[in-house]
Amino acid sequence: MARKTLPEECLAGSFTSAAAASAGMSRKRQRQSDIAIPSRGIRIPLADSANAPANLHAYTALDDASVLTHHSGARIWSASLPAWMQEDWRIHIARDRNSSKPRRRNVVGHRMTFKPGEVVMHDGVRVTSPARTWLDLASLLTIDELISAGDSIVAAHGPDFPRPKTPLATIEDLRRMVAAHPGMRGMKTARLALSEIRVGSDSPQETKMRLLLSRTRVGEPVLNHVILTSWGQPAVWPDAAYLEHRLALQYDGAHHSDPHQRQLDSKRRAVTQRLGWTEVRVFKDDLEGDKPFVIEKVKAVLQARQRRLDVAAAESIG
């Protein structure tokens, strides 16, 4: 006999067994092979392609006190996480410090204290705010990993960009969060990371590139710079730039091997040069090792440009 079709409200992501019963699903139907049971009282339709909030919805729908935190909160906000943390699919759930700690399969339970505004509803789930999520990660991440997470949370682009972007939180929001919890674990890491978080980085690799350069004599590049045409129209949006030297840095990830993307990259480089700038393409391998090649790449371009300027200056005097 054919299985009954799942109710529409049970098709998009996880749902509780109580919600299933309210929708008319029998206990037998809830246990059939097209439904996964990751933990007691929670069901997930195997055929769905829901996003993270939908798949985690049932974990906060079980009661009105459970909050997604740490790794799970970061996934809800699409914050940058290191590879080792991305591979950890345990679900972090907290309740108030005066309540019982959540205990269930594949769940890391916490008892935590939250100040007003630190727990919000987002896409149907109860989760720590972006700033509080970032602070909770401070006890688990290295300084650079926390900087990367912070960059992804404060990332923003203005109206001159092809895709303007509004930040999840501002650097000032992160600063206030640190000030509000002086005794929390990871506070030293949070304070050190906070001083190096910047607005304008779109990926962990872009953050890594910026940090590598800023910690050398080359100095820190500028983010969110827009190269304009002679009539003031936005033309190129480098990932990072050295304005004085008219040097544009572009990080090219794996998708840049696509033929169409290569064509776009070639056009971008031509426009950059036509506007009097030099483009340096940076690849993943350039950021690896004890002496990352990106530093030498940038140094070489800056030195060559300075030599040209010196020659031009000497010829003008002569």
Instruction: Name the structural class.
Output: alpha+beta
Q: State the distance separating the first and last CA atoms.
A: 95 Å
Give the overall shape, derived from the CA principal axes.
Answer: elongated
Figure out the total of helices. 12
Going across the biggest sheet, name each strand in turn.
Answer: 1-3-2
String of helices and strands: EHHEEHEHHEEEEHHHHHEEEEHEH
Secondary structure tally: strands:
13
**Model regions low in confidence, pLDDT < 50 over at least 5 residues:** none
Estimate the strand proportion: 15-25%
Give the overall average pLDDT.
89
Work out the helicity level: 25-40%
User: What is the assembly state of the chains in this entry?
Assistant: single chain
Biggest beta sheet summary? 3 strands, antiparallel
Using the CA coordinates, give the radius of gyration. 25 Å
